[in-house]
Amino acid sequence: MAQSTQEILAGLAEIVNEETGLDPASVELDKSFTDDLDIDSLSMMTIVVNAEDKFGVSIPDDEVKNLKTVRDAVDFIASAQG
Amino acid sequence: MTSPAPRRVVVTGLGATTPLGGTASDTWEALLAGRSGARTMAFDWVATYQLPVTFAATIHTDPAEVLSKVETRRLDPSSQYALIAAREAWADAGTPEVEAERLGTAVGSGIGGVWTLLSQWDTLREKGPRRVFPLAVPMLMNNGPAAAVSLEFGARAGAHTPVSACASGAEAIGFGLEMIRSGRADVVICGGTEAAVHPLPIAGFAAMQALSTRNDAPELASRPYDTGRDGFVLGEGAAVVVLEAEEHAAARGARVYAEVASVGMSSDAHHIAAPEPEGAGAARAMREAVERAGLSATDIVHINAHATSTPVGDVAESTAIRRAFGADADHMPVSATKSMTGHLLGAAGALESVFTILAVANRLAPAAINVDDLDPQIDLDVVHRTHRELPSGDIAALNNSFGFGGHNVALVVRSA
User: Fold this and answer.
1) Residues spanned by CATH 3.40.47.10 within chain B?
2) Would you state the pLDDT for residue A82?
3) Which of B314, B318, B313, B324 is nearest to B286 (CA)?
4) pLDDT, position B375
5) Which class would CATH give A5-81?
6) Annotated catalytic residue B166
7) What is the DSSP letter of B191?
8) Does B130 sit within 8 Å of A42, measured CB to CB?
9) Are A21 and B70 inside 8 Å of each other by CB?
10) Residue B356 burial (CB < 10 Å; 0-12/13-18/19+)?
């Protein structure tokens, strides 16, 4: 079942908070995972795996490098759910 | 050319999280109050695996109460305990100003990240490789705690992990001492940690018949030197000290608890687990420590013994102490603090060093509990029932730590 951008963003922010302790409100669509949120590749893998479970999608390892911003991730999840 | 006198190394900070308390001072108070940290384990897995031992000296303060959620996720419990104790010790030392390249860490652990190792193994089997936590390896590795402490304080003189089973914590303090003596560092955060109250080590120790099976009375189970002793009580936690070159501590006007004067080490090469019954190796470590401190046996006024409460080990240590010091051992009141803390394995030597330091600083040797009927094979002045006051003036004390594998470590602590 497809979720709205806002729902996916909120769910993703929760996962990021769980992994990094960052305030969920700081997880905004235009933020870069590495440059703005200071998320390293190890944390990113954990976030990806948890997002797969939470949103019921599959995010191939090859795809992860393309998920530069929060919007990239939200869009990918939305289309994968579609 | 004469070699310069070795640098004096002093203790300026203490930290601990143990079965008796969440801090070093709470632990020491509980120890003096004669409390036991042993309790029936409330974990589902005790019944699941039908463990023959149903109690342990579990940690008093849940790390989740002290650490952030992210820290508890990214650190194995062994690293969590070490970090908690190190933060306390560092604050207790007055957060010294020290160049990163002159600050070192040495944190030992006997078993390492057993919780991470085995939970991630379960994850692999149940959910496949992709679900294995990306931090699994850095979390399970035995040097994880030393690395975590090094990262926390930006310590760049070296991060070390002595591993010698139940002597690891004492060996780490000895290592810290030598780092300062050899000029590699001015300040070293050192100690030991263990988080092995887990079904596998419990089953393993039980299979060796090393653990007490006094399931109906956990608080009475750890009874070193008592005729009714039947094995050790598994404990967990960490203890950390801040060691500092004397001149460095003096320059910043630091409060000094005591001096760590020397370390003596030896190995038995006798049996992988059993102590050498004549105590030759252990005695050699003790004598070496006293000699290296420039002292003689008559200067030692207190021993914190390894005293795990196993039938064979306690007698072997008594034999070793007599072998090392002969009749001089008559005037060395011996404390057996594992009667209260349980056996913290790789953290034990560090925690008992903290107790030895506090005993010297407070001139008080803590009384063991559960010594109701002193084993006649124990030829020592065992402190029980009431604490023993230690003499005024310059005094020195010894902390013994031994580990499976035949590791013997003895540390000498002198009054400041």
Assistant:
1) 9-251, 263-415
2) 80
3) B324
4) 98
5) mainly alpha
6) yes
7) E
8) no
9) yes
10) buried
- Distance, CA of B355 to CA of B360 (rounded, Å): 9
Record: contact B73-A45, CB cut-off 8 A: no
Q: In 3D, which of B246, B249, B247 has the Cα closest to residue B260?
A: B246
Q: What is the number of H-type helices and E-type strands within chain B?
A: 14, 14
Tokens of B324: 């090392």
Question: What's the rounded mean pLDDT across residues A17-21?
Answer: 92
Query: Whole-angstrom Cα distance, residue B342 to residue B321?
Result: 22
Partners of B403 in beta bridges: B407
B198 is catalytic: no
Q: Which spans in B296-347 are helix H?
A: 311-325, 338-341
CA distances in angstroms from B378 to B87, B94, B309, B314, B329, listed in the order given:
39, 42, 12, 8, 12
pLDDT value at residue B71: 95
Is the CB of residue B134 less than 8 Å away from at least one CB of chain A?
Answer: yes
Share above pLDDT 70 across residues of chain A, in percent, rounded to a whole number: 99
Q: What is the fold of B263-415?
A: Peroxisomal Thiolase; Chain A, domain 1 (3.40.47)
CATH T-level topology, domain B9-251: Peroxisomal Thiolase; Chain A, domain 1 (3.40.47)
Virtual torsion, Cα B71, B74, B75, B77, nearest 10 deg: 90
Q: What is the mean pLDDT of chain A?
A: 94
- Residues of chain A with Cβ-Cβ distance to B70 below 8 Å are 19-21
B73 touches A at CB < 8 Å: yes
Model's pTM, two decimal places?
0.95
Cβ-Cβ contacts under 8 Å, A49 against chain B: 130-131
B306 tagged catalytic: yes
Mark the ranges of chain B whose per-residue pLDDT is less than 50. Answer: none
- Among A43, A44, A62, the strongest candidate for a mutation testing the B interface, having the largest count of B CBs within 10 A, is A43
What is the predicted pLDDT for the residue at A2? 75
B288 close to B326: Cβ distance less than 8 angstroms: no
In this predicted structure, what is the pLDDT of residue B27?
98
AA identity, residue B52: P
pLDDT value of residue B3: 61
> Tokens in use for B128?
């496949």
Domain ranges of chain A: 5-81
